[in-house]
Amino acid sequence: MFAVDLRHYLILSAILFVLGIIGILSRRNSVGILMGIELVMNSAGINFVAFSKYVASDLSGQIFALFIFLIAASEVVVALAIILRIYQNKTTVNIEDIKDLKC
Amino acid sequence: MESLSLNLALYSPEIILSITLGFVLIVHMISKSNLFTFLTALVGLVSAGGASIAIQSFAPQFFFAGQLSHDPFSLFFKLFFITATFFTFLFSYRSYEIDEERGAEFYLMTLAVTVGMCTLVSSINLLSLYLSLELVSIVSYALAGFRKEHPASNEAAIKYLLYGAFASGTMLWGLSLLYGFTGSLNIYSINATLSTNSLNPLALYSVVLMVLFGFGFKISSVPFHMWAPDVYHGAPTPTAAFFTVAPKAAGFAIFIRFFYTVFGNNSGLPDQWITLPHVDWAFLMSILSAITMTLGNLCALWQKNAKRMLAYSSIAHAGYMLMGFIVLSKEGLTSILFYLVVYFFMNFGAFFVVGLLANKTKDEEISSFKGLGWTSPWVAFSMAVFLFSLTGIPPFAGFIGKVYLFSALVQKEIYWLLVVAILNTVISLYYYTYIVREMFLERPTSDKPLLISPLHTFTLILLVIPTFVLGLSWEPLFKYISNSLQFIVTP
After folding, report:
1. Cβ-contact B109, B143 below 8 angstroms
2. Where are the domains of chain A?
3. Cα separations in angstroms, B341 against A16, B304, B459
4. β-sheet bridge partners, residue B305
5. Whether the predicted pLDDT of B363 surpasses 90
6. Positive or negative: CA dihedral A82, A88, A92, A95
7. How high is the ipTM of this complex?
8. Residue ranges of domains in chain B
């Protein structure tokens, strides 16, 4: 029988973190970048829950994970509002086309 | 002692700010008048400031179950943020970028950022630290995009959001590792565990780098500065002035509290970060500081837009302030706090004059300063005062701020950084005096003077006077700040 321990959670969260970073760096669509950011934040959430079960003696890590969902949701609300605005003004959400500000 | 009423009393500045935030909306809904809304916001801010002065009589302690800390350090910053918000409101009233009908939204969001910053500086728990940091960040993204119809403002908002969320996500991952290593969210317990158990240094270094990403983003130090010029350029001018001062000060405050508490030894201020062995982090950060100021100043040389130039200059000033951080002494930290106050008046003042001019010309090009000294001499004179103070020329306040930062370096004998900083001051003289030259040595294109309202004249005077007075008599403020530097309280 295959036993799941702390290591497996950490590997999962590390993979998600790296996928998120790759998404942020490689995507050109601002919604795609946002998805990468969500992956990074939720991989940190996995870390918190896993550490809370295996390392810490209290539930503070699990409470932290709940707050991460909350923050992630509110961040997406603001982000989508801004992206919608950009789409209405410029009919694109590609960040390479958003470059009015230059020196 | 852990009674609810005591906790609420210690949290009263933030509570008053939150109530004001709600009242602003109600007053705006009922009266439909921007003036009443504006006055409500100001009354709320003044009473929050009064509350934070009143609670100074309580002894330093932890409250809300060890989430927040009540100490002179956080009180100093709370007063700082409330003052900064007060000036932002004075600035925003009748600004061409903040619509009359949407004034309430602006006050609401700025007050929310202030609540976040006030909580951030007193948080001693990773959870409250992260939550208040996000409260500051998320509302700031919306504030940067306040002019919905304006593509530049949209662009500022999306850039701020994507960089900011990336930075805070990475920082969050670092914090989760820190929790895993120590099993606690309280920064004092983390410090206690780190100083007794020896961890794998590499793991700890990765935590430091990730956390540095989050905090470095807030204070816009190189290499996390890319967002700053675009955001400050695209955001409405009152908001940009607010961003260059208040969230940056909040970033410095939590940077100081976090690093000195988590990685220091817990008996007062450390000479080095004992829990980070083998690598001289202070040296690495002094290189960051040198690059930050040099890059900020060199890029500012080429700017045609006054807001963008001030944005790069604010990056350079973050570099100067980092110098006080890396010397690892009480003098260094005191000089950062002192410089933040001085920087507030001069930088905010410079943005204020740019905003006043933009109310008339509708853009912020440096060429629109041409001949301002002939048409409206007093405004031009104040701008010259702010710019000379930013350069660090006596007898203005900026000079005293720089002297304290430099003397902290001399005490620790870090002469190479001192040389870099002095060279940078010389570079910055060029682009600051360029505006002064435009104002006084060029002939104006039109003879119409700049019309400014009595309220804005009053605000300008309130900003110019401290820039002078702090350059001549800085002792009282400096003493107050030295006493404020007690953030290490024993539970």
Report:
1. yes
2. 9-97
3. 42, 28, 17
4. B365
5. no
6. negative
7. 0.95
8. 280-485
Whether B365 and B458 have beta carbons less than 8 Å apart is answered as no
3-state secondary structure chain B: CCCHHHHHHHCHHHHHHHHHHHHHHHHHHHHCCHHHHHHHHHHHHHHHHHHHHHHHHCCCEEECCCCEEECHHHHHHHHHHHHHHHHHHHHHCCCCCCCCCCHHHHHHHHHHHHHHHHHHHHECEHHHHHHHHHHHHHHHHHHHCCCCCCHHHHHHHHHHHHHHHHHHHHHHHHHHHHHHHHCCCEHHHHHHHHHHCCCCHHHHHHHHHHHHHHHHHHHCCCCCCCHHHHHHHHCCHHHHHHHHHHHHHHHHHHHHHHHHHHCCCCCCCCCCCCCCCCCCHHHHHHHHHHHHHHHHHHHHCCCCEHHHHHHHHHHHHHHHHHHHHHCCCHHHHHHHHHHHHHHHHHHHHHHHHHHHHHHHHCCCEHHHHCCHHHHCHHHHHHHHHHHHHHHCCCCCHHHHHHHHHHHHHHHCCCHHHHHHHHHHHHHHHHHHHHHHHHHHHCCCCCCCCCCCCHHHHHHHHHHHHHHHHHHHCCHHHHHHHHHHCCCCCCC
Quote the tokens at residue B61.
Answer: 């302690």
Q: Residue B482, exposed/middle/buried by CB under 10 A (0-12, 13-18, 19+)?
A: middle
**Interface contact flag, B176 A44, Cβ < 8 Å:** yes
Chain A residues with CB under 8 Å of B145 CB are 82, 85
Q: Is B329 exposed, middle or buried (0-12, 13-18, 19+ CB in 10 A)?
A: middle
Residue B215 scores a pLDDT above 70: yes
Please, which pLDDT band fits residue A9 given cuts at 50, 70 and 90?
A: very high
pLDDT at B491: 39
- Whether the Cβ atoms of residue B311 and residue B451 lie closer than 8 Å to each other: no
Residue among B145, B179, B302 whose CB faces A51 most closely: B179
Any chain B CB within 8 A of the CB of A73? no
**Chain A residues with beta carbon closer than 8 angstroms to that of B303:** 103
Cβ distance B141 to A78 less than 8 Å, yes or no, reads yes
- Are A94 and A28 in contact by the 8 Å Cβ rule? The answer is yes
Determine the 3-state secondary structure of A81 from DSSP: helix
The answer to whether the Cβ–Cβ distance between A82 and B302 falls below 8 Å is no
Interface test with A, best of B128, B147, B171, B172 (most A CBs within 10 A): B172
The pLDDT mean for chain B works out to 90
- Decide: B270 and B328 in contact? Cβ < 8 Å: yes
- Please state the length of chain A: 103
Paired tokens of B41: 């916001």
Q: Are residues A67 and B130 in contact, defined by beta-carbon separation less than 8 angstroms? A: yes
**The architecture CATH gives domain A9-97:** Orthogonal Bundle (1.10)
> Band of the pLDDT at A58, cuts 50, 70, 90?
confident
CB B453 within 8 A of CB B313: no
Tokens of B424: 């940078």
Q: Please name which of B18, B8, B146 lies closest in space to residue B68, comparing C-alpha atoms.
A: B8
